[in-house]
Amino acid sequence: MATRWNEPGGKWNDGSVWGPYPAPGRKRMKNIIKLSLTHFSILALIGYLQKIGQKMTGNAKFTTLAAKTTALGTATTALETANTNYEAAKATADQLMTVRDNARIAAENAAQDLATGAEGVTKDPADLQSGGWELVSDRSTPVGPMSAPTNFHATSGDDAGSVDLACDSQNGVQVHQAEYATSPDGPYTPSYVGKKSSCTIPGLPSGTLHWFRMRAVGAAGPGPWSGPISKRAA
Fold first, then answer.
1. End-to-end C-alpha distance for the chain, whole angstroms
2. How many angstroms separate the CA atoms of 7 and 125, rounded?
3. CA-to-CA distance for 226 and 112, rounded, in angstroms?
4. Bond from prior residue into 22 cis (ω within 30 degrees of 0)
5. Is the dihedral of CA 137, 142, 147, 152 positive or negative?
6. CA distances from 192 to 6, 76, 234 (A)
7. Full-prediction pTM beyond 0.85?
8. With the C-alpha atoms ordered 103, 109, 113, 115, is the resulting torsion angle positive or negative?
9. Do 226 and 150 form a contact (C-beta atoms < 8 A)?
10. What is the pLDDT of residues 119-141, one digit of tens each?
């Protein structure tokens, strides 16, 4: 005869045993001890657990829990040791960071001193480059026409009704210009003029699709537009 599902002794498919269920009218016991340990800081937790270990050790009410009390004490001591080691390592890391930063300052000062000496020996670019130095570009030579910005892309802005635009920078750019429209064919409205190759276009109707384009302006005038690309305002 098969065991009924609610009879003690039956088993689930994984082999675990059913029941026995509490007798009718008997309530299951609720936990009385409040053990909210996650809200403690590490030091507060160590202190709390040490207090419990001290009060449980040798307590006549809990003689059967001596092994568990010892296990708690061992775990608490291990936590305290680990935290002490962590704090020591963190202090050492802070000290090493200061040493590293000071070493960098010293290295940069030494490099500046050597560069000044090299320029005192010669002003010939080829000679200076033979010493491994990178040279300042000659800004007196006008840069030719700008190219269309590359990697031009648009993303949703942080604020409602805004779109972020960005492109790769290029040598000789004086300013970037950006415009937007509700159609790829325009008409376009100027929305940004600035040195940076990224900008935020604010004040657009939220959720509406707009088209954007950007170009670079140099000494020889503006280059071609990059885009248009489309993006919905945040």
1. 68
2. 95
3. 40
4. no
5. positive
6. 74, 61, 18
7. no
8. positive
9. yes
10. 888 888 888 788 888 888 654 45
